[in-house]
């Protein structure tokens, strides 16, 4: 029981610290946020701090304690000033993260965790920035911001055992934002399709993504994409009302925070930056004047966007020699630490081959080039992937949709609906086809795209057939309780299986299992670091192929 108490305590210390950094963000940008938005802002600020400090220091226990304590002080000061207003939000926050804590208890992480997630995070903890990390392993070539975020949780007593918790914190604060938005719409008795989209998205996220061990670098970004689309749709209401520049700026800033988090988590999601351009296009008539452009240029979030995007691209560049990996035309293979362009092209093909069921760790199809040509891959993909993973996802979407239709349908409303959302929906369909043609694995955006393509028209339908009354609120409350109950139930089943299979009793030892070979790359880096210190005075440790060959 002692270990689980320590884990639980540090878990909430980190949560409070994240909120504290959200409060620091509020003070810097002079904005007021809900506690969910504050949490996401705090996560973004901590990621940026992690990026910057790692250029100068390894993320040792002392470094991390300083970071976490600063956040705790900021949290305490903010609560002391406005505790009466925030007590309700804090209760909801505590309730949600208490539920999510059960998902954090696991014996076995996902397969990629010890393949490269743990090792990458360990390199941040033990060393300041290393150039050429991508030479160690292809997983090191796509440095997700969640590794830098997780590196801050190497703390006394718990050591490495909250280094997989970043996904939990992202999911938790996203849940708070979902529920806060739902509550606001109910409070103001606004029966809009956005309300139903929020409900459907919330249910889907917590039932489909219940196993936090599988989140990796993908699902956190996918959850945030739901919020991005919803925030985008909310902003379009401005187009139907007298234009308010203050409201526009608020949405502009929220979209920037979400986009930065999404892109930094997975470089693949750089494609979602196009939504920013689409958003500006939809507001073009309202912003086509000198004052509006000046207002955006002077906005602090504009510079935050540039800084955040630059730091993320810089991490990729220092790991691989490429600005965007694996886009070979962005690579500079003349650099000492760079991955040769031929290898980059090979990896690009490998990613496509893997996503189209043509390869796995222990398998590759004959004639990969022919397999990837003219949809030759489709039959195998349908047989081995569609009728397993995709159909399971579609079944979850269908069941959620069926329950909501059965629960809410009662009356046809005469609504005059605006069509501003149609352009965004068209973009989502285009994203879907891009996903399907190039990399049809659910983790590359498929989970969210499939759900949104179904949920958005369903939400519009539900808006037109639902009567807003006292029973309506009760139904939503019941759905929220059922959703959390499903999350808890599924995780209890998982823990019971792990207890039987691995003799894993969370009350005795709640820490995850560390696989053999987890420190393999750390040992390689340590040897090279020792050699370089004797032979040169480089400011940073630089890896190259000759060093790696000599080490092996």
A few lines on this structure:
The protein has 21 helices and four strands. The protein is an all-alpha fold. Helix 1 packs across helix 3, helix 2 packs across helix 5 (145-151) and helix 6 (166-187) packs antiparallel against helix 7 (193-208).
What does this structure look like?
- There is one protein chain.
- The radius of gyration is 24 Å and the shape is globular.
- The relative contact order is 0.12.
- The chain contains 21 helices and four strands.
- A hairpin with a 2-residue loop joins strand 2 and strand 3.
- Helix 2 (35-53) packs across helix 5 (145-151), helix 8 runs antiparallel to helix 9 (245-265) and helix 16 (378-408) packs parallel to helix 18.
- The chain has two domains: 2-359 and 473-502, no CATH class; 520-551, no CATH class.
- It has 552 residues and is mostly helical.
């Amino acid at each position: 029981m002692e270990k689980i108490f320590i884990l639980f305590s540090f878990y909430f210390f980190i949560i409070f610290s994240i909120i504290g950094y959200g409060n620091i963000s509020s003070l810097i940008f002079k904005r007021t946020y809900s506690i969910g938005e504050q949490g996401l802002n705090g996560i973004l600020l901590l990621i940026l701090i992690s990026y910057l400090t790692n250029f100068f220091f390894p993320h040792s226990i002392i470094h991390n304690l300083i970071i976490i304590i600063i956040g705790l002080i900021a949290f305490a000061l903010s609560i002391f000033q406005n505790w009466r207003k925030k007590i309700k939000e804090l209760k909801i926050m505590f309730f949600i993260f208490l539920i999510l804590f059960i998902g954090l208890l696991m014996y076995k992480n996902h397969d990629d965790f010890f393949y490269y997630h743990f090792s990458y995070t360990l390199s941040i903890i033990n060393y300041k920035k290393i150039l050429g990390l991508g030479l160690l392993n292809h997983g090191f070539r796509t440095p997700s911001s969640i590794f830098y975020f997780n590196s801050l949780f190497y703390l006394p007593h718990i050591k490495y055992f909250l280094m997989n918790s970043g996904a939990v914190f992202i999911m938790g604060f996203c849940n708070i934002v979902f529920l806060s938005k739902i509550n606001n719409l109910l409070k103001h008795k606004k029966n809009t399709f956005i309300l139903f989209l929020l409900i459907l998205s919330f249910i889907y996220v917590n039932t489909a993504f219940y196993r936090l061990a599988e989140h990796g670098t993908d699902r956190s970004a996918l959850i945030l994409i739901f919020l991005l689309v919803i925030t985008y749709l909310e902003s379009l209401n401005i187009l139907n009302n007298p234009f308010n520049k203050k409201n526009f700026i608020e949405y502009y800033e929220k979209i920037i925070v979400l986009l930065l988090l999404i892109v930094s988590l997975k470089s693949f999601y750089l494609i979602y930056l196009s939504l920013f351009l689409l958003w500006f296009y939809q507001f073009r008539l309202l912003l086509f004047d000198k004052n509006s452009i000046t207002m955006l240029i002077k906005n602090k979030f504009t510079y935050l966007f540039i800084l955040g995007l630059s730091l993320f691209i810089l991490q990729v560049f220092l790991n691989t020699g490429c600005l965007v990996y694996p886009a070979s035309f962005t690579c500079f293979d003349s650099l000492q630490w760079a991955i040769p362009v031929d290898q980059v092209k090979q990896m690009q093909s490998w990613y496509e081959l893997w996503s189209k069921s043509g390869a796995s760790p222990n398998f590759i199809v004959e004639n990969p080039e022919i397999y990837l040509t003219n949809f030759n891959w489709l039959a195998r993909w349908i047989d081995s992937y569609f009728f397993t993973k995709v159909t399971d996802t579609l079944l979850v979407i269908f069941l959620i949709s069926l329950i909501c239709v059965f629960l809410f349908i009662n009356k046809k409303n005469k609504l005059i609906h605006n069509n501003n959302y149609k352009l965004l929906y068209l973009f989502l369909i285009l994203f879907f086809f891009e996903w399907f043609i190039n990399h049809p694995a659910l983790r590359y955006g498929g989970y969210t795209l499939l759900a949104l393509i179904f949920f958005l028209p369903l939400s519009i339908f539900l808006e037109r057939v639902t009567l807003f009354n006292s029973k309506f609120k009760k139904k939503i409350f019941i759905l929220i309780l059922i959703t959390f109950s499903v999350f808890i139930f599924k995780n209890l089943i998982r823990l019971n299986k792990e207890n039987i299979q691995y003799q894993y009793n969370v009350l005795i030892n709640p820490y995850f299992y560390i696989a053999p070979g987890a420190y393999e790359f750390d040992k390689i880096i340590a040897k090279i670091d020792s050699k370089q210190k004797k032979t040169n005075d480089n400011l940073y440790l630089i890896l190259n192929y000759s060093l790696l060959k000599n080490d092996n």
